Amino acid sequence: MMLQKFVDALPIPPILTPKWKNQFYTYYQVNMTEFKQSLHSELNETTVWGYEGSYPGPTIEVGSGEITFIKWINNLPDKHLLPIDFTVHGAHRDVPEVRTVVHVHGACVEWESDGYPEAWFTKEFKQVGPYFRKQVYRYDNCNHACTLWYHDHTLGITRLNVYAGLAGFYLIRDDRERILNLPSGKYEIPIMLQDKTFNKDGSLYYPKQPEKPIRELETSIVPEFIGDTILVNGKVYPYLKVEPRKYRFRLLNASNTRFFRIKLDSGQLLFQIGTDGGFMQHPVGVKEIMLAPAERADVIIDFSNLEGKNIIMVNDAPAPFPTGTPTDENTGTVMQFRVTLPLSSVDTSVIPAHMRPFPKINGHLASKIRYLTLNDNMDKFGREFMLLDNKQWDAPITENPILGSTEIWYLINLTTDTHPIHLHLIDFQILDRRDFDVETYNKEKKIKYTSTAIPPEPQERGWKDTVRANPNQVTRIMMKFGPFTGLYVWHCHILEHEDYEMMRPYIVIR
């Protein structure tokens, strides 16, 4: 379906008001419901799921160290909006069809409030999963200023719940950010990138079967979901009118599978000031920004001296990445900036030369090194499924870091896909990536390197919670575990992979 581009304005999600706030803590209630929303003026309204009646959900803004309590409330219908495959772990017929659990992605949080995939709950908490512990989650927000996001994380149906619309921004502020004099207020805008496919009637299309259908199953999980239409903040190909001045954009890839490699068709630089975990040491001026699902980039775009110009944000990442189909005029177009608003006041904001020190973790402090493979397998229906360390979700826990210890993980990718690997609770540093011989590894279980170590890209030199592990490469990450103990998960953030076995529990122990 060809939808006209740049006919609808970019929506900016509202900031959520707390129900209660005093000097000790803040309390929010967030309702999940089904409703209709216009995603493009040429489409009928689309039935979606969202938080507080909007897709994406409202932006939650908190201060660093502010103790925040959130009651996530499931008021969704009993029937799912999208086709469920009951052969997927956690989604068998013995659990309710519609269930939710919310994860604040990148949060430093006690495990009982992390949104563990088996801590799901239904309407009025009538039924809950085996790991459900509390109705009101507590967030200590022990992060520096950064761009986080919240989304559904239910075992076996995460891909469907997020695709239906359950995602929103969660921003942490601090004093350091305030003194940097960055573009702020209406000049700071969150940008959530997603892809979808629509039926003729405007409803969301999600495949019931892979390309080679599985005859024995009415509905089967697909190896990836690639939509043919790009949405920003829940609008198809929107435009944004801007003044000729600097703007700060918080880019988030909230797609199921699609990677974005973002450029501006004006050829101008994007000044990146932050990664997943907050500010980098210095800004980097880059022509393009690569974002795998769940990765964020905090950028400044300078529109001064561009009065009257239209600038298109484009994407040229093949899907699935890196060997999939190249983008076309639809999937290669993201949104348009129109530099048509008059300058309302002199722009005194800056791109700071120095933002925050980025102390490198000392590699010699690592008390443990783990070698973990990313594997490709076949199930009894002949479907491909991916594993971490060749283990399924239900296998005994093998990653059990000690509180306060530092570890290096070698992510050994034996598949042909790039996998965005996300660890809950902590931020890590990317050490390097290195090509290796996959055949030798498969035969002898030995890593035979075929190149020297490749340092992280300039745009990854900061704290990360999601890393792109490329095919034929060993990706090394290093992190310190804490400040909480308990049960967390690590997984691939391609949601179709995560839902079909590419997720493992891990436990931080005393």
From TrEMBL:
InterPro entries: Cu-oxidase-like_N, Cu-oxidase_2nd, Cu-oxidase_C, Cu-oxidase_fam, Cupredoxin. Belongs to the multicopper oxidase family. It comes from the Bacteria. Residues 44-91, 99-175, 205-325, 384-508 form the Plastocyanin-like domain. This is Multicopper oxidase family protein. Gene3D superfamilies: Cupredoxins - blue copper proteins (2.60.40.420). Pfam families: Cu-oxidase (PF00394), Cu-oxidase_2 (PF07731), Cu-oxidase_3 (PF07732). One of its GO terms (molecular function) is oxidoreductase activity. It comes from Paenibacillus xerothermodurans.
